[in-house]
Amino acid sequence: MKHFAIPSILIVIGLLAVPDIWAQDARTRSFVLSEQNRHAWLFDGVAKWQFNDSVFLVTQNEAIASPVRRPGALALRKDSPCSGFILDLEVRCDAEPTNLRGDLVIAFGYQSPTNFHYVHLTGMVDSLHNGVYHVADSDRVRIGSLDVEPLLTDRNWHSVRLEYHDIEGTLSVFMDNDVTPGLHLENLDVPRGLFGFGSFNDTGAFRNMRLREIDPRQ
User: Fold this and answer.
1) Is residue 142, in this structure, part of any structural domain at all?
2) Which of 214, 99, 97 has the alpha carbon at shortest distance from 162?
3) Distance between CA 144 and CA 132 in Å, rounded?
4) Is residue 218 part of a domain?
5) Would residue 2 count as lying in a domain?
6) Which residues, other chains included, contact 177 with Cβ-Cβ below 8 Å and sequence gap of 6+?
C-alpha cells in the first residue's frame, strides 16, 4: 500500500473566490485547469478528457470491467493526499437526459487503481447507483443504506460538498448548499489518499474545486 505525506493545505481549482475562513490556517494554492498543468493530475481509466478554460471535461468514457469493475474516468490530483477533508466542487452530468443512470463520481482515499472510495451521483437508487462505494481489489461494494434520494436528476450545474472527518469516521455529502446531507455515513475508515473526480461510464464536466484538509487537532 502506498503512503503519502504532505502538509495541511487548501487547494483552489478554477476561478473561485475563496472566503477568508478557508485561508486562516492553511497554505493556499490556486490552479487553472488547463492542458498546461495536465502533468499535476493522474488520469486513471480509459476515458478521454478535454480542458476548456477552467473546466475539466470527460468527453468519452466506458466502465472498466476487468480485473475489477470500476469507474472508467478518474482525474486525481497527484500531490494532495489527505485524511480528513472538506471538498467543494461544481459538477454537470452530460449523459442523455432520459438516462437515469447517468452518473458522476468523486473519489477519495485513492491508493491504487483497485483500492479507493468514491461517491456515486446519479438519478436512481439501487445497490449500484447513488451512494458511497469501496473498491478494494474486487468489484465495488456499496457502503450504507439504500434509503436515500437520487442526487443527480438533471443535466444542470450543481454544487457538491463532501465532508469526511477521519477521527469520528463520518462522511456527509451535500448538494446545492443543502443543510441536510443527501448521503451520510458513520464508522467509516478511509486511508489517507488522493482525491479526484470523474464518472463510472458517462461524460460530464467539473469546475471550481477547493479542498481543505482537516487538522485532527481542531
Assistant:
1) yes
2) 214
3) 7
4) no
5) no
6) 159
- C-beta of residue 88 within 8 angstroms of C-beta of residue 159: yes
Alpha carbon 174 to chain centroid, angstroms: 12
Bridge partners of 121? Answer: 104
Query: Is the residue at 101 inside a domain?
Result: yes
* Digit-coded pLDDT (tens) for 150-193: 999 999 999 999 999 999 999 999 999 899 999 999 999 999 99
CATH of the domain at 181: 2.60.120.560
Cell for 20? 477568508
Residue 103 to residues 17, 56, 98, 112, 203, Cα–Cα distance (Å) = 27, 15, 12, 22, 8
DSSP 8-state assignment for residue 23: G
The whole domain housing 64 covers 9-213
Q: How many domains are contained in the chain?
A: 1
